[in-house]
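Notebook entry, structure prediction.
Reason for the run: the old model in the group folder had no record of what sequence produced it. Starting over properly, with the input documented here first.
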Amino acid sequence: MANDNNRITTALLLAAGTGSRLMPLTSNTPKCLTLVNEQSILERLIINLKEQGFKRLVVITGYQENCIKEFLITISGNLTIEFVYSPLYKTTNNIYSLWMARDIINESFVLFEADLIFDVSLLDNMIYPDRIAISNILPWMNGTTVTVDSSQQVKSFYKNTTPNNIEGAKYKTVNIYSFSLSSWRSIVERLNIHIEANNVNGYYEAVIGEMIEEKRLSLKGVDFDNKYWYEVDTLEDLKEAEQLFSSNTQEITIAANL
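New structure, fully documented this time:
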């Protein structure tokens, strides 16, 4: 059982991107403020963080940063919120956004991306250091996958969901990670190398994958199959997410008022 002394209370949200695949909804609004059943992705995240006892949120902003700031001021409550602006958001990717947090975070934290909605209980096992959210691969999923060993430790990263001739089960990453301070310091060292080499338009998953292959980083997989979650990248994703979470809307609204 996890030690509550290791419980994480800091979150990092990467919210710098333009959300171009959700146009025209994101033509004047950041992706994280996209409404899913009349409640934004960002509001759902804040509710979840508060319910799980988080105390600090760091947000990497870029596109439409003022919209994010103004919205968070209205709902922050007791959650301390800090911002880091990424001026190169138009020409960089999430590897650069994560690198932008290198100086402002000096503790263990949970990393989120701005396109995820999920049931709050899924964080129960993610609020402890050095974990990665994973899910069985379903037809709608694409992107980074991992294999794990018998103790749920991640063995390897792969760039896509296409079946490979590999040993062991393969899972989709859900783009929620937790890192201890020591792991984060090692990740920053590797991020520095990539940024110095001008690899600013890549993905931080590549860095994590490299470090796991070299046994410089160890992450335990946390199963996200038992509750609802969805990644909203496109208008079609949004329709699917609204259908999936329609029955939970009332529960989330109640939680927001607690």
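Summary: Helices lie at 41-51, 65-75, 94-99, 181-196, 204-213, 235-245, 249-256.
The old model has been moved to the deprecated folder.
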